[in-house]
Amino acid sequence: MSDVLMGDYRRSGLGFNLPEHIQGIDEDTYDLLAQLVVIWNRKRSRNLLRSAYVDGKHRLDHVGFSIPPSMRDMEEIVGWPDKAVSAHAERCMFDGFVSRTMPQDPFDLSGLMADNRFDVEIPQAIRSSMIHSVSFLSVTRGDERSGEPPVLVMPHSAEWSSALWDFRRRALKGAMVVNDVDSYGTPTMITVFTPEEIVTCRKGTGWYVESATRHGLGRVPVESLTYRPEIDRPFGRSVVSRAVMSITDDAMRTVLRTEVSAEFYSAPQLFLMGADPESFTDDQGNPIPMWEMVLGRINAVSKDDEGDVPSLQQIGQQSVQPHIMQLQQLAARFAGETNVPVSSLGIVAENSQSAEAMMAAQKDLVVDCSAANRSYGSALKRIAQDMVMLRDGLAEPTDELRSLEVKWRNPAMPSVIDAGDAMIKLISAFPWMADTVVALEQVGFNDEQISRLLSERRRNEAKDQLDTVLGRLSGGQGDDDQSGRDQAEQGPAEDRGPGDSGDEKPAEGPQGNGPGMAA
Predict the structure, then answer these.
(1) Where are the domains of the chain?
(2) Contacts made by residues 18-24, CB under 8 angstroms, sequence distance 24+
(3) Angle at CA of residue 94, ends 88 and 96, nearest 5°
(4) In 10 A of CB 272, how many CB atoms?
(5) H helices then E strands: how many in the chain?
(6) Phi–psi pair at 237, nearest 5 degrees
(7) How many CB atoms lie within 10 A of CB 78?
(8) What is d(CA 98, CA 490) in angstroms, rounded to the nearest whole number?
(9) Which of 71, 118, 426, 497 has a CA that sits 20 to 30 A from residue 348's CA?
(10) Cα separation values, 304 from 278, 282, 311, Å
(11) Residue 6 and residue 178: Cα distance in Å, rounded?
């Protein structure tokens, strides 16, 4: 990768023609690469257009006859496409992998995910897929000597990559990534992924194969993150659809007309009837600038030759309210197309909405993001399998690895209080759920918080057990001491012989009237 970012050349608009010969490449790989280059050239213009809408860099082609020529170069930006993409992407929150056989950190994936910054780059890949309908994740062996992780997972935008879909295998047939470009934005380094190997081609004096590595996975080590896939469109649809772009253009024109109306509103239209033309010139006969007359504090106009005083009339100013109403209508259309609430588009309702109404307005967006999570989860599951297979040297996923699933945060993003109330009701019906990790996940705790909670719980339980054992030991020693004292007090009475008088009463005689007599 060059020192200059690839995104700096996204506006170059230059096509790329694959050379007829690449030294060291086999015929099948060349044919696959040729198809991938054709697809990349064909899709790139639309991908760049959608990126321009999201970045706010798209310029209107047809401004409209109501805009004065002097104001047609004004740049007005409507950020609704970026808002629509962000509203969807921020609700698709990847929360790790789970397995039925390994409740905590299945297959030791946490280390690999941390090395590849999954918490940062997976949201970026999801956002990119919503802009262009698809993005890609590649899995390769990393160069540990240069500081790379043992397994390297890289996200790729559709602006610089392409792929072919195999309908029968329900997987990619091949993929291509542009790794580097020259100062004109023309590719100088390309990597092609096949089910058997990874081939990197570089341009020097001519194109040649820089490296060819067999990965041993038996499938293309690239997965597509697809938004809204369909049978005839396996790479999905973009949030920035044709309808979204059309509504955004209309909104930009409306905002521009509003700005024009504001300019006319700040300069009232005045008609001076019966005035001498010399009243509009200075002493040298030069026309007085109109802004000086508008901004002047004191303006005087003399009578005409006939002694009549000129009359001044003002035309009522046009209101911007029709433009505001049109913008509200366009916001409603945009909300219906993208499932984004109107309140998120900067349109303030006259009456404040209740919490129930706000949740109802977000229902379609939540359903849309839940469906997107299912599609993304299928690709991320295969990515995790590829990571484990490359790390452990497996030729195919094991049964335990196939049971791996992706965990997502709730797209509805409920508050801790609401989630807690719902979980209390479930636990009251199913008491055994109180001792499960799933209950903590549903309340809203992430993996780090759950680990800390369980660790402190185990620590407190161990402390309680230790206190119980110490209490029993100290309690048993006290009982033994008390028993010894009781035996010491009873000892003299038990040692008296038969002839000791002690406190015993004398024996009575046969009659019981006095002391007995010996014979």
Answers:
(1) 21-238, 416-468
(2) 19/206, 19/207, 21/206, 21/207, 22/201, 22/207, 22/208, 22/209, 23/206, 23/207, 23/208, 23/209, 24/208, 24/209, 24/212
(3) 170
(4) 15
(5) 13, 12
(6) -130, 155
(7) 26
(8) 69
(9) 71
(10) 10, 17, 11
(11) 9
**pLDDT tens digits for range 259-298:** 777 766 666 666 666 666 666 676 677 776 655 555 554 5
SS (H, E, C) 18-63: CCCCCECCCHHHHHHHHHHHHHHHHHHHHHHHHHHHHHCCCCCCCC
What stretch of H or E contains 262?
A: helix 242-266
Give the Cβ contact number of residue 307 at 10 Å.
6
- Enter the tokens of residue 346: 């900067």
| Dihedral sign of CA atoms 431, 433, 436, 437 in order | negative
Alpha carbons 164 and 108: distance in angstroms, whole number: 32
Helix (H, G, I), strand (E, B) or coil at 98: strand
pLDDT for 197-228, tens place per residue? 999 999 999 999 999 999 999 999 999 999 99
Say how far apart CA 444 and CA 350 lie, in whole Å.
33
Alpha-carbon distance 21 to 33, whole Å?
12
Q: Where are the alpha helices (DSSP H) in 362-446?
A: 363-392, 399-402, 416-429, 437-443
